[in-house]
Inverse folding.
C-alpha cells in the first residue's frame, strides 16, 4: 500500500527504494510505518462505487482498492483528452486546494489520475470486470449498479471505463465525450465536499473497483424557455453545467414565443430589437446577440452538450408580429403580449413574405449552430386550419432541411408529411397516440417529454410556490417511474431517440427559480435517458439521489427538498441562493 501524504510538508522522505546506498534513519522508518498504518486503518471511502447518478451500466467494487487523492496527485492525459483533463482539474482544485497539474506523459505512474483514449474493443478493456462473471438481470442486486448488459460492442460515442486502484484512477474512453462523462463520474465518487467552492480539509477517498458505463439513449436533454422570461448568458452557462454533471447532452433553447424573440437575426433586426423587449409580467426582456449565442454554443460544446435552437412556428409568434406587422394576418400590428395564454398568434401562411422570413431566420440560426438539429416548433397553432397548417409546416420543414439541419418539431407535426430524419418531440399526457405512432411508422424518431412526467414547470406539490399544474403535480418519483422505451403504444424502443425535460418559464423569473424546478427532478430524467433499464429501481435511486443534496448545498445550487427523497441529516434542506444570483426578479 503506498503512502498517501496529505500535504507537501508531511510528505516526508522520498520512497526508500529510490535512495540506494543510503540507510534510512530510524525516525524515517517510523514515519513511513505510521503513514502505512494510517492508511490501513482509514475508514472506507464515504461514497460507494455504484452510487452514481445516473446509475452506471456496471460497477464492480473492490473495497481493498480505495484510492486517496493527495496534494502530490497529477493528471496525465493523452493529447486528445487534454481538455477533459483540464476540466476535471478545474472541478477538483477549489475544494481540495491541490495543484493537480495536467500533463501529457507516462500513463502508468502511481498516485495519478489518468485519462486515456483507447479504441480497444470493450471485451479486451474489461477483463477485470469480466473475471467476476457476467452480470445479468438476475444478479443486478449483486453489482452495485446492477446491469443486464453484456460487454458486446465497444465503449461507443459516449461510454467510458473507470478503474480505481490503491495507486491511482484510470479513465478510458474511445472519445473525448466518454472521457468527460468518466470524469463527471469520478467527481461524484469523491466526498460531497468536493463541490465546495473553497478549500476543505477532507480525506479525498475514491472507492476502489471498476465501472463500465454507456448511455441507453443517444439524446438526453432539457429545455430552457428563455422566451417567457429572458435569462442572461451566465445563467444559461450555469444550466449547461448542471446538464453536463448528469450526462445530459442536449440543451434545447426555446428562443421565440409570444412574449419575446431572443436571438438576433441580421436580416430581420427588429425581431430581437423590438420583439425581444418584452417578457411575461412586463419586464424588460432581452435577447442574445450572435456573439452571445456563439458563446453559449461553445461553452456547451466544451461540456459535450449540443445546443438545439427552437424557432416556434407558425404559432407562438406574437413578438415577431409586433416587430414586423407585415407578417401578421391582415397586416394588423398586434399589441405586445406579456400574459401567459397560448394559441392565439400565427404568422400569415398566405403571404410569400412569411416564407422569406422563415428561410432567412432558419438560415441564420442554422449557420450559427454547429449541432445537427433545428427545432421549428409547430405546437398550439389553434387558429390555423388543419390543411393550411399542413401546407405551412411542409414548406417550413423543406426550408429547414435546405439548411442541412435535421428537422425537430412538436408532435403536432405528426400528420404532416415526413422529411428525412425528422424527429418529433412528444409532450402528450396519454401514451395512446395513434397519430404519433403512425408518424413513427412513416420514419419519424421520437424525443419523449411526457407532460405529466417531465414537465419541470409543473409544481412538485400543491404548495410549491412557482409552477403550474395543468399536467398534474410532479414530484421526483413521478418524474422517475416510467420507461421511455415502452411509454407510447405502438412505438418500439428503437424509434426513441431519447428524453427531454422542458422547463417553461411563465412562472420562473430567476436562476434560483430555474434550479429549484430542475433539482432534484432533472437527475431523475437524466437517469431515464442514460442508465440501462435493468438498473431502474426507485428505492435505490432515491438513496443515491439523497447523497447529492450535500453536493448541491456545497455548490450553492438551489433545490427543492422533496419529501420523496431521504436527505441526509442534518437536513441539507433549505435551498441556498447561489452567490450573485438575482434573488428577486430584476423585472
Ligand atoms: C405547453 S409544450 C406549451 C408551452 C407552455 C407550456 C406550459 C408545448 C409544446 N407548449 O408553450 O409554456 O405548456 O406548461
Amino acid at each position: 500500500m503506498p503512502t498517501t501524504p496529505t500535504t507537501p510538508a508531511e510528505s516526508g522522505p522520498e520512497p526508500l527504494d529510490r535512495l540506494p546506498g543510503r540507510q534510512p534513519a530510524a525516525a524515517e522508518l517510523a514515519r513511513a510505518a505510521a503513514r502505512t498504518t494510517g492508511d490501513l486503518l482509514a475508514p472506507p471511502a464515504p461514497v460507494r462505487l455504484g452510487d452514481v447518478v445516473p446509475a452506471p451500466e456496471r460497477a464492480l467494487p473492490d473495497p481493498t482498492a480505495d484510492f486517496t487523492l493527495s496534494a502530490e496527485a497529477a493528471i496525465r492525459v493523452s493529447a486528445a483528452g487534454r481538455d477533459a483533463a483540464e476540466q476535471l482539474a478545474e472541478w477538483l482544485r477549489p475544494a481540495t486546494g491541490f495543484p493537480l497539474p495536467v500533463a501529457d506523459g507516462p500513463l502508468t505512474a502511481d498516485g495519478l489520475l489518468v485519462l486515456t483514449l483507447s479504441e480497444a474493443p470493450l471485451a479486451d478493456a474489461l477483463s477485470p470486470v469480466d473475471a467476476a462473471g457476467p452480470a445479468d438481470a438476475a444478479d443486478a442486486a449483486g453489482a452495485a449498479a446492477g446491469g443486464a448488459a453484456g460487454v458486446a460492442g465497444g465503449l461507443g460515442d459516449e461510454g467510458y471505463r473507470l478503474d480505481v486502484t490503491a495507486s491511482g484512477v484510470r479513465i478510458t474512453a474511445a472519445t473525448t465525450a466518454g472521457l468527460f462523462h468518466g470524469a463527471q463520474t469520478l467527481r461524484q465518487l469523491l466526498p460531497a465536499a468536493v463541490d465546495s467552492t473553497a478549500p476543505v480539509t477532507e480525506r479525498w477517498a475514491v472507492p476502489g473497483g471498476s465501472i463500465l458505463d454507456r448511455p441507453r439513449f443517444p439524446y438526453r436533454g432539457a429545455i430552457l424557455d428563455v422566451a417567457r422570461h429572458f435569462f442572461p448568458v451566465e445563467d444559461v452557462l450555469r444550466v449547461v453545467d448542471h446538464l453536463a454533471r448528469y450526462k445530459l447532452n442536449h440543451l434545447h433553447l426555446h428562443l421565440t414565443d409570444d412574449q419575446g424573440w431572443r436571438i438576433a437575426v441580421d436580416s430581420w433586426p427588429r425581431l430581437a430589437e423590438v420583439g425581444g423587449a418584452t417578457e411575461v409580467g412586463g419586464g424588460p426582456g432581452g435577447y442574445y446577440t450572435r456573439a452571445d449565442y456563439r458563446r453559449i454554443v461553445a461553452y456547451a460544446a466544451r461540456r459535450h452538450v449540443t445546443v438545439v435552437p427552437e424557432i416556434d412556428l407558425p404559432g407562438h409568434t406574437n413578438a415577431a408580429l409586433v416587430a414586423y406587422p407585415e407578417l401578421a394576418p391582415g397586416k394588423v400590428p398586434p399589441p405586445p403580449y406579456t400574459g401567459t395564454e397560448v394559441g392565439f398568434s400565427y404568422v400569415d401562411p398566405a403571404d410569400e413574405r412569411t416564407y422569406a422570413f422563415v428561410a432567412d431566420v432558419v438560415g441564420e440560426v442554422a449557420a450559427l449552430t454547429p449541432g445537427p438539429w433545428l427545432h421549428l416548433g409547430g405546437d398550439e397553432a389553434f387558429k390555423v386550419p388543419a390543411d393550411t397548417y399542413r401546407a405551412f409546416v411542409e414548406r417550413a420543414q423543406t426550408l429547414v432541411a435546405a439548411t442541412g439541419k435535421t428537422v425537430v418539431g412538436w408532435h403536432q407535426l405528426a400528420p404532416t408529411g415526413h422529411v428525412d430524419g425528422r424527429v418529433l418531440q412528444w409532450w402528450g399526457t396519454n401514451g395512446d397516440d395513434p397519430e404519433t405512432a403512425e408518424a413513427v411508422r412513416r420514419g419519424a424518431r421520437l424525443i419523449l417529454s411526457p407532460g405529466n412526467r417531465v414537465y419541470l414547470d409543473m409544481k412538485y406539490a400543491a404548495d410549491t410556490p412557482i409552477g403550474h399544474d395543468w399536467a398534474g403535480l410532479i414530484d421526483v418519483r413521478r418524474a422517475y417511474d416510467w420507461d421511455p422505451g415502452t411509454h407510447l403504444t405502438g412505438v418500439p424502443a428503437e424509434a426513441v431517440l431519447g428524453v427531454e425535460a422542458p422547463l417553461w418559464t411563465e412562472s420562473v423569473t430567476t436562476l434560483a427559480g430555474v434550479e429549484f424546478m430542475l433539482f432534484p427532478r432533472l437527475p431523475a430524467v437524466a437517469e431515464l435517458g442514460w442508465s440501462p433499464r435493468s438498473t431502474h429501481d426507485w428505492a435505490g435511486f432515491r438513496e443515491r439521489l439523497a447523497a447529492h443534496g450535500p453536493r448541491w448545498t456545497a455548490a450553492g445550487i438551489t433545490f427543492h427538498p422533496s419529501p420523496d427523497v431521504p436527505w441526509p441529516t442534518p437536513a441539507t434542506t433549505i435551498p441556498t441562493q447561489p452567490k450573485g444570483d438575482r434573488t428577486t426578479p430584476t423585472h
Observations:
- The chain is about 30% helix and 15% strand.
- The first helix runs from residue 26 to 41.
